[in-house]
Amino acid sequence: MHIPDGWVDPAFLLITWIIVLVIIAVSLYKLREHDPTRIAYMAVLGGTIFATQMLNFPILGGTSGHVLGGALAAVIVGPWGAVLVMTVVLLIQALLFADGGVIALGPNIFNMGVVGVFVGYIVLRYLMLNATPEENKVRYYGGVFIGAFLSVVVASFFAAIEIGVPILVSPSVIPLIVALPTILLYHILIGIGEGIISTVIVLYFNYIEMDVFIEIEKPSLQLPGTQR
Amino acid sequence: MEFNKKYIIGIVVLLGVLLILSPFADPSPDGLEKAALEDHGADEGESFDLGFLTDYGAEGSVLHRILENDLISTIVAGLIGVLVVFGLFFTPYFILKQRSKEISS
């Protein structure tokens, strides 16, 4: 879902860059509150997400999809940690691997590193209200799946707006009304892949004794109505 | 916190499997590229290209010219990416760990 340079209207570039820079600043500030374990987990998640993103899987004839990973990172290290994980992955992809534009890092980090992260996270947190992961395993892993699925669909919706709505100039016109159904269709299919792969990776991390429930047990973000 | 052996081996195995699989990824455009470029005729966008690891060690990149092998070039490019990500996170990890050691001693 990496947008190259030249696709996004300057108005959206400006808006997404501002939002992204503010959220990265907050995430860096919150880094001081994280214990070293969580930061080690962020490293492992970053490496895993980078490698998993390389594995494009086929969805429809001639179309592929890859894992975004924002939801996967968020359910384990929380949204602030996950924003930094995704920022690092996307930054390296744009600077070293020519994957996604550099000016388009604003919208790319916004879609995959902010929208994807928070959607996946909020879905799981609300599904786990008054429930502990140890006693409600099906609900927990189901929540990871649904959160990951929705993170892709919602992120693609924002990507479609950014490349499909001309405000100042439209560098490459892809009318939103026409393109949105195709983009959503592809990303519903990619989202199913994202859900399956994210859930399998969380199960695997749990199997190798990584503390995957750390964020649900000690949340780094207090959501309305989640007071215990 | 010290990580146990099972965890460290588990991570190495996971990353190893992912990287070995990476050359066999589907080369088709992803959902967004397909919709924009092929279905709705957008212009090819641009990317910043250093030339060294272009498109994960694809043909034409410096790495591919050195290794002269599609398979190995993709795996090595992926490994370099993973190591750079690790480096960027393990630096603050070791700083924090050092600090928490100083506080507890």
> How large is the count of helical segments of chain A?
7
The largest contact between protein chains, plus residue counts on each side, is: A-B, 72 and 60 residues
Our Rg estimate of chain B from Cα atoms comes to 19 Å
- Could you state the oligomeric state of the chains shown? heterodimer
Helices and strands of chain B, in order, run as HHHHH
Strand content of chain B: under 5%
> For the residues shown, what is the average pLDDT of chain B?
89
Quickly give the structural class of chain A.
mainly alpha
Roughly how many Å is the radius of gyration of chain A?
17 Å
Could you report the average pLDDT of chain A, rounded to the nearest whole number?
94
Helical residue percent band of chain B: 55-70%
Uncertain regions of chain A: pLDDT < 50 for 5+ in a row?
none
Shape of chain A: globular
The main β sheet of chain A shows up as: 2 strands, antiparallel
Helix-strand pattern of chain A: HHEEHHHHH
How many beta-strand runs of chain A? 2
Count of DSSP-assigned helices of chain B: 5
Low-pLDDT stretches of chain B: none
Question: How would the global form of chain B be characterised?
Answer: elongated
Which class of secondary structure composition applies to the elements of chain B? mainly alpha
Q: Notable features of this structure?
A:
heterodimer; A: 228 residues; mainly alpha; two-stranded antiparallel ribbon; 67% helix; globular; B: 105 residues; elongated
Give a brief description.
The complex is a heterodimer of chains A (228) and B (105). Chain A has 228 residues and is mainly α.
Topology:
The complex is a heterodimer of chains A (228) and B (105).
Chain A: H1 10-30, H2 36-53, E1 57-60, E2 63-65, H3 70-96, H4 105-127, H5 137-164, H6 176-207, H7 214-217
Antiparallel strand pairs in A: 1-2
Chain B: H1 5-21, H2 31-39, H3 54-57, H4 62-67, H5 70-104
Give an overview in words.
The complex is a heterodimer of chains A (228) and B (105). Chain A is mostly helical and 228 residues long. Chain A contains seven helices and two strands, in the order ααββααααα. Chain A has helices at residues 10-30, 36-53, 70-96, 105-127, 137-164, 176-207, 214-217, and strands spanning 57-60, 63-65. Chain A has a two-stranded antiparallel ribbon. In chain A, a hairpin with a 2-residue loop joins β1 and β2. Chain B is mostly helical. Chain B has a domain at 36-105. Chain B is built from five helices and no strands. Chain B has helices at residues 5-21, 31-39, 54-57, 62-67, 70-104. The chains are: A mainly alpha (228), B mainly alpha (105). Chains A and B meet through α2, β1, β2, α3 and α5 of A and α1, α2, α3 and α5 of B.
